[in-house]
Design goal:
- InterPro entries: 7TM_GPCR_serpentine_rcpt_Sre, Nematode_rcpt-like_srab.
- It is elongated and about 70 Å long.
- It is an all-alpha fold.
- The longest helix is centred in the middle third of the chain and has 45 residues, at 117-161.
- It starts with a helix and ends with a helix.
- It folds into 2 domains: 2-48 and 68-193, no CATH class; 194-246, no CATH class.
- The chain has helices at 2-20, 25-56, 71-74, 76-109, 117-161, 166-193, 195-209, 230-244.
Length: 246
């Protein structure tokens, strides 16, 4: 869980770098992505290998074991530590993303002051991405809090009734269920808060089920319908492109 939280926190760092280097981000996007990916791998993989080795090498035998080999399933204190780190780190990154979104929203309103058309586009993308990532990261923070409470609850039963008690499996399964619920919530955030993704989904729904109330509008500013000719889309695009240079 902590390694997953680390990857989520990398999104906040990427958004910070995109905000700082908005004028040159397109030239640095690949480099930044590789650097963040390498950092996440170098921190996650060795840490995961060490934790699995430390908790499994003495009390798990592959040939004779009849229980799970996942460390957090057999050691509630490790789950408590992991979820605590998730909650704290994701909480800090969520707060930072909220501040970034406010800053980028104000900056987007004045994007014509930026150096190039590319920078103006990147600034708009920064705000849209902030808006879709922030709720997801806040949700991951709440997932960490849920796991923290469940792990503490599980630890109480382990202390009172021993490690192998009837409540341990139930609480562990509740934790995995909360992870599955977050995965659905994470996808919903990107579909709902990202304008381009939401527009693509509305188009797909229109193709599948046909017309329904509100399905024909694809751009609130110009009120374009799906069943119009492609020339209208082209004209609107070049009008916006021409206006962006003013």
């Amino acid at each position: 869980m902590f390694n997953s939280a680390l990857c989520m926190n990398m999104l906040a760092i990427e958004q910070h770098l995109a905000t700082v280097w908005v004028n040159t981000y397109e030239q640095k996007s690949m480099k930044i992505g590789v650097i963040l990916m390498v950092i996440a791998i170098l921190q996650s993989v060795p840490f995961g290998i060490f934790v699995n080795w430390y908790y499994i090498n003495k009390d798990f035998d592959l040939n004779s074991a009849n229980a799970t080999c996942i460390p957090i399933d057999t050691h509630w204190e490790l789950a408590l530590l992991g979820f605590t780190m998730c909650f704290l780190t994701c909480g800090l990154c969520s707060l930072w993303l909220v501040l970034l979104h406010r800053y980028n929203h104000k900056r987007t309103l004045n994007r014509l002051k930026l150096e190039s058309l590319s920078a103006r586009y990147q600034q708009t993308e920064n705000e849209n991405t902030n808006r879709s990532i922030t709720p997801s990261l806040v949700g991951y923070m709440m997932l960490g809090l849920t796991g923290l409470v469940l792990s503490a609850w599980r630890g109480k039963y382990a202390i009172d009734y021993g490690v192998n008690n009837e409540y341990d499996k139930i609480i562990t399964d509740l934790g995995y269920t909360s992870v599955d619920m977050y995965a659905i919530y994470h996808m919903f955030c990107f579909m709902y808060y990202n304008d381009a993704m939401r527009l693509a989904i509305r188009r797909d729904i229109h193709r599948i089920v046909g017309d329904f109330p509100g399905s024909l509008k694809i751009h609130n500013a110009h009120q374009i319908e799906f069943n119009k000719d492609a020339d209208i889309h082209t004209n609107v695009y070049f009008e916006q492109l021409q206006d962006s240079w003013k």
